[in-house]
Please model this.
Amino acid sequence: MTAWTKEIGLALLLLLAISVIGGLTGFFIPLLFLLIISLLIWQVVQINRFERWISKGGRGKYPKAKGIWEDIYYHVYLIKKSEKKRKKKLGKIIDQFRKSTDALPDAAVVLGKEDEIEWANTAAKNVLGLQPSDRGQRIPNLIRFPIFVRYLKSGLFNESITMPSPTNSNITLTVKVVSYGAGLRLLLAQDVTQLRKMEQMRKDFVANVSHELRTPLTVLKGYLETLQELDEPLSPLLSHSFQQMHEQTERMQYLVDDLLLLSNLETQPKKTHCVDIPALLSKICKETENLNNSAGRIELTLETNTHIYGDEQELRSAFSNLLGNALKYSPKESKVQVRWQQTPVNLVLDVIDKGEGIAESEIPRITERFYRIDIKRANKVSGTGLGLAIVKHVLLRHDARLVVTSELYKGSTFSCCFPSERAC
Ligand code: ADP
Model:
């Protein structure tokens, strides 16, 4: 029997008793009234007891009660008990989260809608100089580097930024913001000083080695040319050896030149002026045809006369590499199309060939340094494996991207897509 049926049963029993007594004595109405008033007073007393217990937080065992009230006390007690358990569990999770974030070497800061600091881990103190008392303050008021303030204001958090640490200018940080929840953002700052130093050392090493190798190579090549041009006839073995040595020194020279160019692209400041792309392309097409003995193979289409802001020397290197590749990796009699066009969002240079093509799985790798595809070519094609790495770097410095579409044994299209804002 449930508490409710018991309660209703009791009320009906009392009503029956009153009906019998009322019928015998003739006081049914006053007795009924008395019963209703007594039941009401009893309920008010119970409500009062319940209110006093719950207002004290419903702590400990609940007071003794009868009927439906015992059930109500019991259910509330159960809810309270499970809530207590949940709170304990949550507290444990938060404690673990705090401990793990405090153990992180990277700074983590939770920012509110107005860039105010809601929470920061221990590393934020060392890396960003934030104190516990800074909670609630707007972070751009505490870290005032223009690059950082601009980054936060922009709301574009796909990329990270690099800036010095506010506590020590010798420390370099990369800062990234991740949006989550309703208007909340997590700011992460990582100390990349060592990484940057190593990267700089690598760049310096490559630049120095390439530079130092240049002179001995030129001397070697000069002597080899002199020996080959001697009046005295050379034995076939010597003649073949000199030819091989000459070819290899030339290859090494190309390598050194490309490495130097790459390291310049990584280290030199950008120079920008308005470049006449149609004129540049016409020049490059002529030069490349002459250089590769490919007269008449290149078809240049200028669909737009737009010029762009950039570095002419760098653009020349990139375009020449693409054109050189298109000629190298396609049959001698096939045409190569070069097209300069304007699309609704980009300015695009397409270099289209009908050559051997590139397998889809290889496309993501061809811009890596020294990566060369191992296709069984009838004629071995010479190259350094650095050409497309140069193209990629040049385009990066011009806010442009390289799009490659290719089909094996049908041909390839290399598209350099410049943002329209580069037009001048
Ligand atoms: P490489 O000096 O070998 O030409 P690149 O960096 O210019 O070096 O190119 C990397 C590789 O990408 C090349 O070895 C070649 O296999 C492939 N490749 C580049 N351009 C083309 C093209 N137009 N058609 C087919 N393969 C190409």
User: Anything to note?
Assistant: The longest strand covers residues 172-180. The longest helix spans residues 68-103. Residues 321, 325-326, 329, 353, 355-358, 366, 371-373, 383-389, 412 surround adenosine-5'-diphosphate (CB under 6 Å).
